[in-house]
Amino acid sequence: MSSYESPVKNNGCACGAPSPYLPVRATIERTTRISETERFFVIKPSDPLLLDYAPGQFFMAGIAGFGEAPISVTSAPGRKETFELCIRSAGSLTNALHRLGKGDAILVRGPFGRGFDLDEMKGKDLLFVAGGIGIVPMRSLIKAVLGGKGYGRLTLVYGCKTPEEMLFKDELEEWKDSGVDVRLIIDTAYPGWKGPVGVVTTLIPDLEIREGNTLAVVIGPPVMYKFVIMSLDKKLLGPEDIFVSLERRMKCGLGKCGHCQINSAYVCQEGPVFKLSELKGMHEAF
Ligand SMILES: Cc1cc2nc3c(=O)[nH]c(=O)nc-3n(C[C@H](O)[C@H](O)[C@H](O)COP(=O)(O)OP(=O)(O)OC[C@H]3O[C@@H](n4cnc5c(N)ncnc54)[C@H](O)[C@@H]3O)c2cc1C
Ligand code: FES
Question: 80, 112, 265, 269: which one has the fewest Cβ atoms less than 10 Å from its Cβ?
Answer without folding.
Answer: 80
